[in-house]
Amino acid sequence: MKFPKDFMWGGAIAANQYEGAWLEDGKQPNVTDVLVGIMSREPGIKWNKDTGKYEIALDENKVYLSHEAVDGYHRYKEDLKYMKEMGFNSFRTSIAWGRIFPNGDEETPNEAGLKFYDEMFTYMNELGLEPVITLSHYETPLHLLTEYGGWSNSKLIEFWKRYVKTVFERYKGKVKYYLTFNEVNALFRMPFVAGGVLTIDNPKDVNDPIGSTTLQDQWNAYHNFLVANAETVKLAHEIDSEARVGCMLTCSSVATYPYNCHPANVLGALEAQRQSVFYFGDPFCLGVVPSYLKKWWKKDGVNVEFTDEELKLIKDYTVDFFTFSYYRSSVYEQEQALKADTGGLTGVTNPFLKDAAPKPWGWSVDPDGLRYTLNVLYDRYRLPMIIVENGVGLDENLNDKGTIEDDFRIHYIEEHIKNVALSLEDGVDCRGYLYWGPIDVVSAGTGEMKKRYGFVYVDRFNDGHGSLERAKKKSFYRYKEIIESNGEKL
Ligand code: BGP
Fold first, then answer.
1. CATH code 3.20.20.80 for 8-484
2. Residue 1 has pLDDT above 80, yes or no
């Protein structure tokens, strides 16, 4: 197995699942802070009849684990040392937008937030960990949704530009790789978090703020994201000639296989790829707004217009590289509707796959699907690729030796990394593999601690108790060995 000398080995986390300290040093809530798990349809907000607005109203009977998460805000140095010990040369995390602009619409940034990340990135530089920084990992400030309707409002583009400009200027020389919006292509399946959209103008059902978000608002957000993405590339290049901007899309659904050779299944699989990935990937990477969208807009009864100036911006400022998450593949069969969760689409069970992760989550395991995905994406976009999420969540407890024998995870990474090597042989320009969740964090989808991805265990549980102490799992040593040998010991 051959990997280039400068291959990026590492891991990835997100501020909202790792840091905790949700209201510390001036931070105000992000959208994720009012949800127990982003798949939930019950945000902790309620409609105030008198003001005619939504306001924060957390459910006292629920545990919002992300509010303290694994206390990364206070412990990141200790944790980054573990990453270094495994041999990482790069590390992905996000900036919680609400630490820098707490409500999102302020004129001036919050110095305490800027300082926090300044110190964190300096420390990463000292350790020799290349920071790969997501500008928003589902972290739109809640105020921007309740006050402006979120990304459906074009004002967000201006607020976003102010935020990213501040970030690029402040971290110039410390951060080279930025990712714009984490998994923004999940907008239509998770309009509140991935889309940052809330319908505030006569919402259909004030008791169902997620379900009653209109399609017009969601498509307006699509429009605004395309413009904001291009503006981000433009600003980054103007401010820092060394900075590189990538998009980050959930790409498990690139590997949507037709159930059989029935043309309706083949066409259906193609449509699933478009609807889940390419409708964002093509404008971000090729600078074109796909022609099939006109048909979709007609079907959805929405009106979406791009000005010539916007189309030119999108054309001129495409991303420098492509990053994505891959967890598993899916199968399209015309009679069965596709569903989705944080791992991507779910369709008919694939009878040819040998493995699935243990229940309760039971995600199927398809390492060849990663090679397929890398090849499809590289053929289409011809951009450097970095896998910034791939991993397996397991329900684990420390044994009496104070560790966890996570052989399933070891097998999972070995098989996926082998397929990265095979895709390199195929000629794909893949620059890195950043495992999702190298330390246990709060699950995005379910909001649990129980769903653990880490090589490093964190002592915290679903009910919120736990010492927060860290411990190395068996996979810690195996990933270290793979990295040390630059992928030769596979
Ligand atoms: C992706 C998200 C991550 C993450 C991962 C695993 O969709 O970008 O934030 O957590 O999925 O999902 P989960 O935590 O639901 O298992």
1. yes
2. no
